[in-house]
Amino acid sequence: MSEIYNPNPVIFSTNKQSKSNIHSIWLQDDEGYGSDTYFDDIVEPIDQNEIFDLIRTIYDPEHPNTLEELNVVSAPQIKISGNHLHVEFTPTVPHCGMSTLIGLSIRVRLMRSLPDRFKVDIVVKPGSHQSELAVNKQLNDKERVAAALENPALVKTIEATLQQGVV
Fold first, then answer.
1. Model's pTM, two decimal places?
2. Of 25, 30, 86, 123, which sits most exposed with the smallest number of CB within 10 A?
3. How far is CA 140 from CA 65, 133, 148, in A?
4. Which among 79, 166, 157, 63 is positioned nearest to 125, based on CA atoms?
5. pLDDT tens, 84-137?
6. Residue 81 in domain
């Protein structure tokens, strides 16, 4: 990263009580309940707060702050209809060059945490980015996402946003 797109972002207070380091919302226990049992057939509803808890702790690629602290994501920006999940995020500045990386980080966290039955659409908030249509197209094109996730340098950057923060 050579250029910082928003050197002085506004930091918002967060709800500390439900913040957790979640890797998956599906539990595995010592009794063997996991992927090979009858629990796989049980469809458990997921609400917007559970999805928000998954993505709120993702770090911004430029700053040592979470997406929640920067007000990039919020629970009201998440819509769930059956197995369709729509996540909207708001870049901190209209010319944010990290928007695609932020969206990819959200997608990877959700891919790792949700069952395959979910179709996930990730978009920037309408009117919040100068290249809104291009960013949305990149984030929701399966082939582009797959190609991006084959790039070792990009995957390393995404891993950093999902784990400890600024790359």
1. 0.76
2. 30
3. 25, 11, 12
4. 79
5. 999 999 998 999 999 999 999 999 999 999 999 999 999 999 999 999 999 999
6. yes
